[in-house]
Amino acid sequence: EIVLTQSPGTLSLSPGERATLSCRASQSVTSNLAWYQQRPGQAPRFLIYGASSRATGIPDRFSGSGSGTDFTLTISRLETEDFAVYYCQQYGTSPFTFGPGTKVDIK
Amino acid sequence: QVQLQESGPGLVKPSETLSLTCTVSGGSISSYYWSWIRQPPGKGLEWIGFIYKSGITNYNPSLKSRVTISLDTSKNQLSLKLSSVTAADTAVYYCARDGRTFAVWGQGTLVTVSS
Residues of A with CB below 8 A from B105's CB? Predict the structure, then answer.
């Protein structure tokens, strides 16, 4: 199975700052990479698919990039509601797998 | 707007079968793939499997011998059965729309495996 590694484990930033989250796959997933946001006590929220396409209703401060094995989620200017855990997920090869998550917390 | 709601027992004894139902409202269950995903307390997400209306299923090999996902189109519901559970199966169980990416999620239901 494809293993996803996310870094850093925790990112401490202030509102208005830029967040850069990384996801690395153990083998190529081409562009079959999605990102989700999970706030405490809530279900994950679908943010990005195809490595760089925003899901319906997702603000344009969220952007994704990358292909193959290295991917990035960028939040251009953090808002209060963006402090959460972010997971990447590959769907290029079954079983579909998730990364361990990056927690973005308030500095 | 499709909405999903999981339901089922919150407590299951070891070695027994976990059974959950997901009720779909605001759309037909025949129109999409449907998935189950779980999350142990304080941990990450694990894909369990998906089903399509034709009966096509795809399960995570780590759970394949114990998992059954099925559809009841007359009730617009999907179900999950996980047999021979242990404490390691304690998790929040989510149903989600689609088979490869997961655009819509239920709120999740916590299932604890304990005697």
Answer: 43-46
